[in-house]
Amino acid sequence: MMTLFTSDHEWLRIEGDIATIGVTDYAQSQLGDVVFVELPKVGRSLKKAEAAAVVESVKAASDVYAPISGEVMEVNDALMAEPALVNSDAAGKAWFFKLKIADRSELGGLMDEAAYTKHTA
Amino acid sequence: MMLARDDQSSLQSPLKRTPLHALHGSSGGKMVPFAGYDMPVQFSTGVLREHLHTRSSAGLFDVSHMGQIALHAKSGKVEDAALALERLVPQDILAVARGRQRYAQFTNAAGGILDDLMVANFGSHLFLVVNAACKAEDEAHLRANLQDACVIEPLQNRALIALQGPKACSVLAELCADVAAMRFMDAGPRRVAGIECFVSRSGYTGEDGFEISVPAEQAETLAKALLGNSDVLPIGLGARDSLRLEAGLCLYGHDIDVTTTPVEGALEWSIQKSRRNGGARAGGFPGADKILAQLENGAPRRRVGLRPEGRAPVREGAPLFADSASSEQIGAVTSGGFGPSINAPVAMGYLPSSQAAPGGLVFAELRGGRLPLRVAATPFVPNTYKR
Fold first, then answer.
1. In chain A, how many domains are there?
2. What is the pTM of this model?
3. Over 80: is that where the pLDDT of B6 sits?
4. Is residue A11 included in any domain, yes or no?
5. Would residue A94 count as lying in a domain?
6. What ipTM does this complex have?
7. Closest residue of B to A64, CA-based?
8. Alpha-carbon distance A1 to nearest alpha carbon in chain B (angstroms)
9. Minimal CB count within 10 Å: which of B20, B59, B108, B138?
10. B43 interfacial to chain A (CB closer than 8 Å)
């Protein structure tokens, strides 16, 4: 298992040909209290950089983009019932959706944890 | 995801600081540019808990960016200042008794709203509180129109602190016993913690509370004294906005502006009979023809409360439609977000008057889809003013 990051503050956990995607703890700290999450439909085919989900705090709405291309295999329904999970466990229970990786070469453009930590420093 | 950039200041003129700026820094305030000032949008508590704390206990807000203006009649009689101000607002200012305050709007010749404001009668003069983004224009407007009768004195060396919530009175009473006897919209000079202040029992949250004008050099001392009470937390502009939205209160520049009249803005309640047709001092303010006609015959559109039926907040700018398919836009959302106290999204917007009755259903366009919203009475959360 390997965890990668985008410069736009999403994380991807890669297991085989499945990528689990969420937003980083840094992102949630900047967003503030999350009150609403909208997730993509299972089966939707996402292109890299396409708006895939929406996360809203009391203050504002933010799009979550697909960090790589792929088909949505599963979404985290628990997030819709309890959006505050994004604040309490961004890197864990608050995963957003799982993609079937369409093109592994797209992973090459992503950051490892050390590079992401530097990016947010 | 794209995170909103908080720091837009480097490209613009340097941000102004309120007398409480240093205190915000040491209190963990997350600072953002607002109306030319570097202001706290939230503290470490976070918007949601800051909002709920204000509704259950007491919150302290720095609103020093707002404009404070003293209006003195050249005759020395406050009645003359009141009559002069009535040339610019559709409110009965002469009837504001000494020690009382009233909500008003500056209107323009087209009946639009230049700004909304509070007007208090301090006995010797009037005390005005205006919006931060409008204060320079408001001062110029007063000078251009009232200089024959009044001396306009911007009070630049004063801070303004709002203390809001069900415990605001007990907290403030420890520093000024007099405040417990004040009613909603009472206003006047009071000594608070030994400091000469102007106190009004009013605010912008729907809660009981006070606004305290304090000399700039003593603002931090007073804020620290209030924050020293364990019932009080500092509250940022984020929760100020969600609190006023739940209370159904207008935000100038969003819910009302130069394109909306007081009648369209559902602010008829603020225009007294004496200024309406048949009243003792009917008309005589900019846009009176239009506003008085709308008071009698209604306006083509109206500001309404809106309750989105799902969980998704519907925000400012969202277009409104009569049904889920129609292509004809009938209105727009002017303020919208999440209401922490009702744990649901809330919004305000404009609709044709024929579709403005509470209970009606309209649709907002959001991310390519249409979401149903129920037209609702405001406030969304009952206010707790001590009348």
1. 1
2. 0.94
3. no
4. yes
5. yes
6. 0.87
7. B1
8. 23
9. B108
10. no
Query: Are the C-beta atoms of residues A27 and A11 closer than 8 Å to each other?
Result: no
Enter the tokens of residue B17: 């600081």
Please check the confidence at residue B10 and state whether its pLDDT lies above 60: no
Residue B310 lies in a domain: yes
Chain B residues in contact with A54 (beta carbon < 8 A): 312, 367
Q: What is the CATH number of the domain that holds A15?
A: 2.40.50.100
**Contact residues for B216 (Cβ-Cβ < 8 A; gap 6+):** B19, B64, B157, B158, B159
- Say if the Cβ atoms of B47 and A8 lie within 8 Å: no
Q: Is the CB of residue B88 less than 8 Å from the CB of residue B286?
A: yes
What is the DSSP annotation of B254-272? TTB-TTS-TTTTT-GGGS-
Both tokens of B232, joined, read 């009080």
Residue B289 has pLDDT above 90, yes or no: yes
The one-character DSSP state at A120 is H
Give the residue on B whose Cα is nearest the Cα of A59: B238
- Using the beta-carbon criterion (under 8 Å), do B313 and A36 form an inter-chain contact? yes
SS3 B47: helix
Interface of A with B in 17-56 (CB under 8 A): 23, 27, 30-33, 35-36, 38, 54-56
Q: Are B207 and B386 in contact (CB under 8 A)?
A: no
- Domain range for A12 is 2-106
Does residue B21 lie in a domain region?
yes
**Per-residue pLDDT tens over the stretch B75-115:** 999 999 999 999 999 999 999 999 999 999 999 999 999 99
Residues B215 and B349 in one domain: no
Same domain, B322 and B215: no
Residue B77 placed within a domain: no
Same domain, B59 and B204: yes
Burial class (CB in 10 A: 0-12, 13-18, 19+), B7: exposed
Chain B neighbors of A57, CB-CB under 8 A: 47
Q: Closest Cα to residue B284, out of B294, B297, B299, B274?
A: B274
**pLDDT at residue number B321:** 98
A8 touching chain B per CB within 8 A = yes
- Residue B92 domain-assigned? no
- The pairing of strands B187-192 and B329-339 is unpaired
Cβ–Cβ below 8 Å for B47 and A62: no
CATH number at residue B352: 2.40.30.110
Contact A33 B242 (CB under 8 A): no
Domains of chain B: total: 2
Q: Is the peptide bond before B379 cis (omega within 30 degrees of 0)?
A: yes
> What pLDDT score was predicted for residue B11?
56
Q: What are phi and psi for residue B80, nearest 5 degrees?
A: -70, -35
Give the model confidence (pLDDT) of B297-312 as tens digits.
Answer: 999 999 999 999 999 9
| Residues B250 and B256: beta-carbon distance below 8 Å | yes
Mean pLDDT in residue range A66-80 = 97
More confident residue, B175 or B10: B175
| Residue span of the structural domain in which B387 resides | 300-387
pLDDT digits (tens, 9 = 90+) for B182-223: 999 999 999 999 999 999 999 999 999 999 999 999 999 999
